UniProtKB/TrEMBL annotation, chains A, B:
Residues 48-150 form the Creatinase N-terminal domain. This is Xaa-Pro aminopeptidase 1. One of its GO terms (biological process) is proteolysis. GO terms for cellular component: cytoplasm. It catalyses: Release of any N-terminal amino acid, including proline, that is linked to proline, even from a dipeptide or tripeptide. Keywords: Acetylation, Aminopeptidase, Cytoplasm, Hydrolase, Manganese, Metal-binding, Metalloprotease, Protease. Belongs to the peptidase M24B family. Homodimer. It is found in: Cytoplasm.
Length: 623, 623
């Protein structure tokens, strides 16, 4: 991977930062956030402005360019990748390390007095705008909205915004009709005494209307906004996709409906003016609800007195708690996904010793096996297929320049997942196709102990996920090892593979308490720069737990793994496990054997079935 | 404990809330916070306004009185106590429970439109003011400062503000001279480019000048403020205590000093006007630093442009990391404290079966034994001496009405500590003087497992204490038990028994990372309402840890118990311990025997020594 040469681009950007054509007054710094106008994590090619200007294309990062400097903030998952992809014009700011300045502090330290810092108001979330604006103002600078995106002005071959056909999601998948979701939303609005709700996140629009799309890779969403009133529904969406009879039928666009369920379809680009019109019609005390992460542009359109902001929208919270159709769908999706992985690992075991399997070939093969499964739609994120030192690059994606051949001498880490019409998967397994070293086994076993500590944790109702994060680290910490990422994220149901408002991370505090029906990942790891990476990830469902004393009837929760793929026992140093941990592994493998075994049998995949049975032999711990 | 009848008082308060003598416009609600003008946790009798109006005298709580309602917010430690002490005029708001409204939300729900909510601007911290003012304003109400404290206007027999003599702290105790502390503070000020620093917390003033006082019970502090400039030192303090030759000598008030170390002594009450004078002399960009928890009155005195607020002051952070004189002093204090407790427990073992020892007698006896130790000053908090059901009242203090007799049939919980000139102690032991039930032993053992999990935890440098909280709960959670308080708090060195900026609690997120030299408590518990309470508390010192892989030279930390008092083995169900936990208990008891045994021997306390030896017999775990 050679870095992108950005000298010329930065020169152009610095020119437009001073050009009266684009800015009322010159800006001394320009912020290029990661996201799009919906604060999406995965973005369409036309929105990859930060990657365009810097070369760094990881999923999280913020670039800031001043007259003298260009700096990139990203987190531990991407330190190596960013360092590889960016040229010497750029300074990497490692978030989470003690000495790394915040963007605000850094700006204050490098800017000349009384500077203007520009940003696209549609791209920056309102909460970030507020924090940054305040910090800059208190140091005598100004954050200013720059209407025209300055990257777009220099990006001559910028791709078009996608506008792909929609998928309608049947009640058997969604569990609740869009009408019932609207009713539930309006009742939350009534509780908070707000009259309007603006849906800005793409997965929230998709979830609300039981529609899916493919405008963004990996996330089955489509570019749209919605504005929900107590008697009106407005959907802002472009293209001829509303002409699709299936979509018209699904949304009952041509039916005689009670007026409060009649959907008005409007152009995507009219959201700001329509929102302004809504606001103009408000009486005092009437409020508009939107996420505090919505764009500064939309948030500013609502005067403060009418604004009702929350960190998590009622849709975000409702979406996180899966209904029984969704959990059953997630179970089915994970069974199919495990079948594909059993096939893959059986195939790799035979092929890797021949020295012909590269990271890309392995990733493609994984996709091929997945695509054979019913209701497969696409991958849920870019497959991390990494062997040896590449495994230490936490969010690595193999490209021809880095593509390494799998061998019997190196650890192989595969973090992959898919979108099926019934659910979303995300699973990481770390394998050795030869003989792992004692040190590799030791590290793997600590990671496994952390994985089990979270998966088997019992905790009272009302507990937030971040309180479980240290459980995943304890065994690593005891030996002086750690990993620089959170332990888990919420997972959507045939939706975004990363979703809020719950998760398991030392980094968040504002997460919502875990509830039965929520689905998160459990994925501790260990990474040795230049040598190998280890991660063990299951998607797990929050379920009620049974305990001896039941928290004085407060009730309690634990996790049920939805992912049912063997954990390679060859990598485990059994003597480092307690008997309880050993039993956990054996019980888990027993369940893999039963559930996935039956499906492999049904699908007639006998060789993979034999592999599964071999890989799920019980561990025996010598006391 | 019968509740305080507050009908008449509330009537009077509601009258002054409307009286033009005290308020410009009537206030529809009046907030009575817990604290004093320094946001102290322990307060002088003249500042116990919330206890006066409500009857509830726990250390944390906020009262709000409206025309119709009176409500009290407090946390899990005080639910039972508050319910016992307040009459039917009051509604108890249980903080931390899901359905309990915040003060702001509650106010909005009960107030008529356009209400005014009053509060004493010297008593409410600026950060609370800001949060509450914003929430009220967005609901159409106003938070207004009421200059005269309305409780004081109806409190006819309010005691005088104390003004007791000072204690000067020798360099051998303090480790660093006040001059060097001022130099270090000024260098932090220079780093942040601020010209002035306002010291508002009483323990920060005491620490900075190496002075102690006794204006407030349990906390060796005195009423004072300080304003530190780059070339000036102003100390705001009342009374003739500055006439004491030892104090004058200590502060070098009569010496010829470099002007930047010359202390100007000013009246306590002149802080606001002097601060206003400082501010009046500022040029643009010159800043004044103070805690964001300082009073609204002082914060407002500094116009926003000149204000530099941080959640923790540089003094708070420096004070938390003990120097070697302080840690050595803390060790000595804990050895003396353990001697006193060995004497006490030996005495209780003999006396309890006679049925003559009440909770108050036991608490007095504990104080008597402590007072025999060198450099004893006073207790560090009100002794929690509680038996049977009283033990379930987390911050119980025995009073004649509740005073229960210790017996061989009930669990006894003693949470106590002292101020010695060389250090502050805080220790909880839970004992049974007869035969504990299997259930009591089971609960005790889970609490012990949690205590050990924290005490023996190893974690990388930079870890915040709140990430360790769940370790203390894991064994309890597994069986469906929990406790409604944090696991640990910072402990001062001959200063406040509760201090920031570190701690171990699920409730905080803004704590500073743990560092070697910090001192915290480790005190998980379990409470069965109406039956018993269990808590096991040691004060522990953060020390560097040795690990196999040392976090890639990031380094790691663990804890060393400073408290060396046997944990009653009779209460332990050994079969519930792992071998590692069993070894921890045995090693701990071995250290108690060696260190405290030697001191008991030296002090000629042979009977207590025999008790110690018996109580520290190794546990044997049957596999």
């Amino acid at each position: 991977m050679s870095p992108k040469i950005t000298t010329e681009l930065l020169k152009q950007l610095r020119q437009v930062m001073k050009s009266p054509k684009y800015v009322q007054e010159p800006v001394q710094a320009y912020i290029v956030p990661s996201g799009d106008a919906h604060q999406s994590e995965y973005i369409a090619p036309c929105d990859c402005r930060r990657a365009f200007i810097s070369g760094f294309d990881g999923s999280a990062g913020t670039a800031i360019v001043t007259e003298q400097h260009a700096a990139m903030w990203t987190d531990g998952r991407y330190f190596l990748q960013a360092a590889h992809q960016m040229d010497n014009n750029w300074t990497l700011m490692k978030m989470g390390l003690k000495d790394t300045p915040t963007q605000e502090d850094w700006l204050v330290s490098v800017l000349p007095e009384g500077s203007k810092v520009g940003v696209d108001p549609f791209i920056i979330p309102a909460d970030q705008w507020k924090r940054m604006s305040k910090a800059l103002r208190s140091a005598g600078h100004d954050l200013v909205p720059v209407k025209e995106n300055l990257i777009d002005t220099i990006w001559t071959d910028c791709p078009q915004r996608p506008c792909k056909p929609l998928i309608t999601l049947d009640l058997s998948y969604a569990g609740v009709s869009w009408r019932d979701k609207i009713v539930a939303l309006r009742s939350k609005m009534a509780e908070r005494k707000v009259l309007w709700f603006v849906v800005t996140a793409l997965d929230e629009v998709a979830w609300l209307f039981n529609l899916r799309g493919s405008d963004v890779e990996y996330n089955p969403v489509f570019f749209a906004y919605a504005v929900i009133g107590m008697n009106t529904i407005r959907l802002f969406i472009d293209g001829d996709r509303m002409m699709d009879p299936a979509v018209r039928e699904h949304l009952q666009l041509d039916s005689t409906l009670e007026p409060e369920f009649k959907i008005q379809v409007m152009p995507y680009g009219s959201i700001l003016s329509e929102l302004q019109a809504v606001v103009a019609g408000l009486s005092p005390k009437e409020k508009v609800w939107l996420s505090d992460k919505a764009s500064y542009a939309l948030t500013e359109a609502i005067p403060k007195a009418y604004r009702y902001l929350t960190p998590y929208t009622p849709i975000c919270i409702a979406k996180a708690v899966k209904n029984s159709s969704e959990t059953e769908g997630m179970r089915r999706a994970h069974i199919k996904d495990a079948v594909a992985l059993c096939e893959l690992f059986n195939w790799l075991e035979k092929e890797v010793p021949k020295g012909t399997v590269t990271e890309i070939i392995a990733a493609d093969k994984a996709e091929e096996f997945r695509s054979q499964q019913k209701d497969f739609v696409e991958l849920s994120f870019a497959t991390i297929s990494s062997t040896g030192p590449n495994g230490a690059i936490i969010h690595y994606k193999p490209v021809p320049e880095t593509n390494r051949t799998l061998s019997v001498n190196e650890i192989y880490l595969l973090d992959s997942g898919a979108q099926y019409k019934d659910g979303t998967t995300d699973v990481t397994r770390t394998m050795h196709f030869g003989t792992p070293s004692a040190y590799e086994k030791e590290c793997f076993t600590y990671v496994l102990k952390g994985h089990i500590a979270v998966s088997a944790a019992i905790f009272p109702n009302g507990t937030k996920g971040h309180l479980l994060d240290s459980f995943a680290r304890s065994a690593l910490w005891d030996c002086g090892l750690d990993y620089l990422h959170g332990t888990g994220h919420g997972v959507g149901s045939f939706l975004n593979v990363h979703e809020g408002p719950c998760g398991i991370s030392y980094k968040t505090f504002a997460d919502e308490p875990l509830e039965a029906g929520m689905i998160v990942s459990d994925e501790p790891g260990y990474y040795e720069d230049g040598s190998f990476g280890i991660r063990i990830e299951n998607v797990v469902l929050v379920i009620p737990a049974e305990t001896k004393y039941n928290f004085k009837n407060r009730g309690s929760l634990t996790f049920e793994p939805l992912t049912l793929v063997p954990i390679q026992t060859k990598m485990i140093d059994v003597n480092l496990l307690t008997q309880k941990e050993c039993n956990w592994v054996n019980d888990y493998h027993q369940k893999c054997r039963e559930v996935i075994g039956a499906e492999l049998e049904r699908q007639g995949r006998h060789e993979a079935l034999r592999w599964l049975i071999r890989e799920t032999e019980p561990l025996i711990r010598v006391q």
